[in-house]
Design a protein that fits this description.
This protein is α/β, with parallel strands linked by helices. It has one domain: Lipoprotein like domain (Double Stranded RNA Binding Domain, 2-Layer Sandwich). Helices cover 45% and strands 27% of the residues. The longest helix has 23 residues.
Length: 135
Amino acid sequence: MEKNVIIKKLILIFVVSLLSLTSFAQDANDYFVRGAKVYIESNNENVIEHTNDKILLWGYWKTVNSKEQADFILNLDANFSIFYTINAQAITKDNTIIKRFKSKNSFKSFDANPKRGAVKALFDKEIIPFVHGLY
């Protein structure tokens, strides 16, 4: 009888622990809300500038000048090999990955500026559809 009570208590503790863990976990919905503050970091200064412009035109998020002010960080890794390709991921301030986006390049962008074209492709084909699909 006492063994059954101990087992029931352990099961209850386990269930409550699982519920509390899932209730505190955050996902993309919590970060990618309208008006969220995003800090942009990249290995290329022009990519940061074009991303700032695209976010301003989109009007859904706001860019900030420091990680401390941001709700999340958009990390953009730009590489050049025939075309500019951008690998993007949204991360928390403590470097936890929120979302990795598919890489996009400037090939189909029809933009005279390949970096701007890659940023445009990333937002138009990946980030904006993903964010609007959340709500």
